[in-house]
Amino acid sequence: MSPSTSPRFFTEREVARHSTKDSCWVLLGTRVYDVTAFLRMHPGGEALIRSRAGKDLTQVMEGPPHRHSPNARRWLEQYYIGELDRESGAEEVQTLRVRRKASEEAEEKSAEKTSKVEDEDENSPYKLCSSVDLDKDLVDWRKPLAWQVGNLREKYDAWVHQPVDKPIRLFGNPFMEAATKTSWYWVPIVWLPIVFYLSWHCYTTLAQGNTRIELTSDFSIPIPKHVFPVLFMIGWFLWTFIEYCIHRFVFHMKPPAHNYYLITLHFLLHGQHHKSPYDGSRLVFPPGLASIVVGLFYMSLCKTLPETISVSVFVGGLGGYVVYDMIHYYLHYGSPKRGSYLYSLKAYHVKHHFEHQRSGFGITTTFWDHPFNTVIPDEKF
Asked: I need a labelling partner for 128 at 20 to 30 A (CA). Which of 37, 117, 179, 359 fits?
């Protein structure tokens, strides 16, 4: 709801009726929020919100068990739909509906006075978002963002770490825009056949018994086929370290405030994901971009290890990457079972997005956050 329009009013009975997965409303004091679109995204799971539907979340937002961050509170405001009229009883419902209808008519008249973007598609998702207050927001969401963010300079870091539930358009050119989007299923479609083929190739090659590691000119160690799973897991473990380093040192570099191009590059690589963390088309690596990292990983191993061994380690790392991208997508859109490993990972990753952007860089595991001292601290009350 635009801050310039009059709020709608609801009775407690009306709010209480919206407690299903198709329509879920909650209260924060007297403010009413329709959080239906957020059910799948909530780190605590859909059932947790539905159990509190129609109720006041003031105490819940403060915690325990979890104190919601300022970013989480800003996020909630995107779902604001009106105010609770506590003084209205059942006999005043009709009067309340009249007031609401008058409010809606006033909104329609106000909207007619607002200039429309003529070239915007009628079914575009950008029209489904709540209107942007251009006096407060630092960019124009009706235009491509890629060439705007560099002008934010010293304001960029704070702006990009205030997430919103709005789709992002990076480029005006439709082909360039399409190239930045990847559906999650393309990751297994492109990479899993390579993982399966190279795994079979390495195992059958090792089974021939000709693979050896030469320690000296007179001494070498044979590598039997049952060592392949060990080499595969070593590659997977190496990937978790690469994953951590890329996320921390590349994706979370802090571009200089005066450098337009580095700010733009950061936004294209990862900043857009933090600004709009639930943009489902930008949660996994495009295969073209991923192939650069995959190729560098492969060449590094081939220069340091014998051929079959290097490929065995490489295929484990490639498998780890596929799992990484799938887990990352699931952490944003899945609803893991409470108490499970993925449930704790989802809560950890959401904290990284909403509150601790300078820590919590592990995605598939929090292992590397410990030696590098970037573990997200436990909350204390």
From this structure: 179
